[in-house]
Amino acid sequence: MSRSDGEPARRWPGAVTAVLATLAGLALAVLIGYVPVTTFIDVGIDRLTVPALALFSGYAAAAVFLLSGALLTMLRIVAGLVLLIVGAVLAAGAVALEPAMVIHGEYRYYFEEIAELEGMHAISRAAGLVLGPLTLVLAALPPTFRHTRSRMAY
Question: Whole-angstrom Cα distance, residue 21 to residue 147?
Answer without folding.
Answer: 12
